[in-house]
Amino acid sequence: MIEKDRAEFCAFHYTNETDGKCTLCGLTLCNLDQQYNIAAERICQLCYNISRARKLIKYFQFGLWGIAIAIFIIIWQVTDELNLFALIPLLLVLVFPYLMRPLIMKLYFRELSPKESVLPIIRYFEASGNQDHYKIFMKILSKLPEEEKSEIKTKLFDYLVPALAFNYAKLPEEWDTELVEKLKMSKDEFVGILLSEYRKTLIQTAVHNPQENFSKFLIYLSEKAQDKDLLKEYINEITSKDVISSTDEELNTIYNKLLEELYLYEEKFNEICDELKLTKQKDLIAQLLERYEPPPVPKNQIEAVLTIDQLKEKRRKENEQPQVVISNPNDEQQIVIE
Ligand SMILES: [Zn+2]
Ligand SMILES: [Zn+2]
Questions:
Q1: Which neighbouring-strand residues pair with 317?
Q2: How far is the CA of 171 from the centre of ligand 2 (A)?
């Protein structure tokens, strides 16, 4: 849904129309992007740089290990005893990746100007929710010249809105203050754009394709803009025919993330319904929750490593077969696998 607009232009050269996608990360490309991997698949400059940088780092690390071990042996031989100082070069090898991070980032963004990297890095953050990606995005945003910032603004929002909405829980504290400062706009302006240009998309996505904490993002926007109608529209969409009339199975597969939000923040939703006098909707939400099958809770450490889907499947099988319970005197004892 949010994808539609940004699928039309190149993520690296936003003024160009796109003519394909990166095989690895899915970013849109244009005729200026002609990098290929060994399998002759078309990839973006960022994926190309990352794979090259990783190789380089690996060779470098092997080299360092070699040197560190050599120094260790020399010190050992010279001092004729196992000297603690000999361990220093080995320690250096271990902290190497951390020390090299700024350089690694430079390698990743080689041959990419700030305006070419700003949209891709937002997309990386959207997909990974990795705070490091967000930090790099902020850095790139500060490097973007003013006139380019205003030129790219609409496209930037097309990328930014889903990235923020999907990763709301992972944003740093005071993210909005810092972001609007870099975007050179006020918080009101920022929230205003989100609620006027992306209102429908946000509500649709929040109901039909949500991620964790999407509801919190909408609550945040509604509070900042003092726009109660946003929550009313959101709740109306949650209790729309599409959702209500789906079968239990559809509800628990298609809408499971939505149900999870309703389940986790039930009190908050009730509060909103009361405040906005949405009595009918409040009942409908309660009915939805009655139909919700919360994910099974792992019973032991072995089950804890299973995915929720695997666990559900296991419970389903357990329920199908008559249970044979073999009592075990050690049952109380938990098996701990470290
Ligand atoms: Zn890529
Ligand atoms: Zn391009």
A1: none
A2: 28
**What is the per-residue pLDDT across 156-185, written as a single tens digit (0 to 9) for each?**
999 999 999 999 989 999 999 999 999 999
User: Which of the ligands is closest to the CA of residue 11?
Assistant: 2
Q: Quick check: 114 pLDDT over 90?
A: yes
CB 39 within 8 A of CB 48: no
Q: How far is the CA of 156 from the centre of ligand 1 (A)?
A: 18
pLDDT at res. 177: 96
Q: What is the pLDDT of residues 66-89, one digit of tens each?
A: 888 888 888 878 877 766 777 777
Asked whether 288 and 262 are in contact (CB, 8 A), the reply is: yes
| Ligand 2 centroid, distance to 140 Cα (angstroms) | 18
User: Longest Cα pair distance anywhere in the chain, in angstroms?
Assistant: 84
Nearest partner of 251 among 233, 238, 264, judged by Cα: 238
H/E stretch holding 276 reads none
